[in-house]
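Batch manifest, entry 17 of 40.
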Amino acid sequence: MYRKLLIAIDPDNDGEGKRALEAAMELLDEDGELHLASAYSPGGGGFFPHVTEEAPEEKEAEVREVLDLLARKYLPLNRSAILHVVAGNAGQKLVGLAGQLCADLMLLVSRGSSGHWPLRRATVEYVSVNAPCPVLVLPSLEKSGQGEGS
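Output type: structure tokens
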């Protein structure tokens, strides 16, 4: 069991959030700390391309709101999560955040190089190699054959 778990979540993918949070509940100590993070490039694009140049502050607040909703929707009532929305290179920011938090484990859901984010595979590889803690990479629901309705 892990005491501090960091999950990188794409707030635009509810199924990914649900999968990651369910896995986290199996891995986290009863009194462990759960951290949810989303990283974005201030110029748009990157690992989580839902933030554009026009209004990064507004989009950051929107992403934080979606992370909060995911946590309230999929976490047991007796559990909570600390939310982190960071701007910059996703791989570097997630690795830095894991170090700052002294995370015991980082959890990611990967779609590999397929799908609409071709750079995501490189980000997952960067995090896996450079993180200061073990990294668990779950396959996406589509890749594991479970689909959204499972």
